[in-house]
Amino acid sequence: MDLTQKIQSAFWFIVAIGILVPIHEWGHYRVARACGVKVLRFSVGFGRVLWSRVGRNGTEFAISSVPLGGYVRMLGMGDEPIAPHEREQAFKNKSVGQRAAVIVAGPAANWVLAILLFAAVAWMGSEQPKAVLGTPPAASLAERAGLHAGDWVRAVSSDGQQWDDVASLVDLQAAVGRAQALGEGVHLSVTDAQGHGSRSVRLDTEQLAGHSPDAKLFNDIGLAPLSEPVIGQVIAGGAGAAAGLLTGDRVLSIDGQEVPDAGFLRDAIRRAHDGEQPRTLALHVERAGQVMELSATPRLVDDGGRRIARLEIGIGTRPETLTVSYGLLDGLLHGAQQSWDMAVTTVKLIGRILIGEASVKNFSGPLTIADYAGQSARAGLSPFLDFLAKISMSLAVLNLLPLPMLDGGHLMYYLFEGLSGRPVSDWWQQQLQRAGLLILMLMMALALSNDVGRYAGWH
User: Which residue ranges does UniProt annotate as crossing the membrane (predicted)?
Assistant: First the structure.
């Protein structure tokens, strides 16, 4: 990633936080006002106040110097003195139910926003690759399941009984990714490329439970779109360039084997080595109507702890696409279903991480999120809205975790108070706050470590 892209990623990350955090705080603010709580300040950003004005209800609306968050300060949440005539407006003097409603309103606002953003993407429609598969890599789950080039995946199921239609390859990869993250298998309903000859196969994605979501995992699963075996970008000074390959060349055969599609070619190149020695490949290439023979010796690189061969070229043409869009009601239902599926998957995945059945590398930090923000923004409005929806949903779920210092931790206090009839003591709150701060710091350090590891190529 060059400097310009890094700056763009940082900018779009700040834009995303500048949208999502104020929405979260707005949820707290609106319900607090509805419950008669006096809100002292609604700030977008932290730190020194750059601009502010006081509204009719006495709330100071402010923009602060650090644009990476925000907060709502309510009367009675701290140790400040409360005037006698304002005691009824103090947060701590409200009922348990009202306090819980104010706290849950922040994550709820993010959840509603996620539904609307997912729905907006569905309403706008987008061009997505058709779920017609290319040749799966050798030994991948797709190959072991009996999938072939040209197979069209029409539906998915977790149990082989209840099926959900697959609109595109994006839908398929999302469903398979959820199954892998949760340590479950997934059934696929498959036809040929013309929609004939339906059959059912099972991907044993539970075998990859706990693996990090990276390029190696996607290769091990083996679901890629059908694409022509045409050479794309040829990296200057790379092995492909040394062999004389040019952009636009169509590879007809490799080592005497006919090349049906890009997936077959890509896998044949990856396996072109004997231990630590690359194997020279004999290529028949069509260029400008002429067939020519070339010899190419790939370079060996490390890929997730294993050696693979590369010619340092792009492979494949743009796959067949279709327009995926929804009507008004269907789009809302689709958005609600997407948000629910994401919430359930996130909670289950966190549970699996805690018991050691999933990798802690699933945690992503600000560097990875910023990278995704930049990539999605460069891809267009629809991908960026989809990114915002996913981050908004993540904020909703993570804030509801029962950890002190998060909204979920406060809800646990109120649950205890509602069941016991007495609030959590100040001493216990202080100890729990310290423990919660420590856990959050460890989680942030782990996420940042994962970010650095990804950028450094450690995993």
Answer: 6-23, 100-124
Number of H helices, E strands in the chain: 12, 18
Q: Which CATH class is domain 129-225?
A: mainly beta
What is the C-alpha to C-alpha distance for residues 136 and 130, in angstroms, rounded to an integer? 16
Whether pTM > 0.85 for this model: the answer is: no
424-449 pLDDT, tens digit per residue, is 998 998 898 888 888 888 888 887 78
Q: What is the DSSP string of 374-408?
A: HHHHHH-HHHHHHHHHHHHHHHHHHHTSS-TTSHH
Locate all alpha helices (DSSP H) within 188-273, ordered by sequence. 215-221, 239-242, 262-270
Phi, psi (rounded to 5 degrees) for 372: -65, -35
pLDDT tens digit sequence for 386-403? 999 999 999 999 999 998
- Tell me the catalytic residues: 25
Task: Supply the CATH classification number for the domain 231-315.
Answer: 2.30.42.10
Between 366-379 and 426-456, two packed helices, what is the crossing angle to 10 degrees?
60
User: Looking at this protein, which amino acid is placed at residue 167?
Assistant: A
Q: How far apart are CA 159 and CA 169, in angstroms?
A: 20
User: Within 10 Å of residue 60's Cβ, how many Cβ atoms?
Assistant: 15
Residue ranges, comma separated, of all CATH 2.30.42.10 domains in the chain are: 129-225, 231-315
Can you read off the two tokens belonging to residue 340? 């629910």
Rounded CA separation 444/246 (Å): 45
Tokens found for residue 370: 């910023």
In sequence order, which residues have a C-beta less than 8 Å from that of residue 273 and are 6 or more positions away?
279, 298, 300, 307, 308, 309
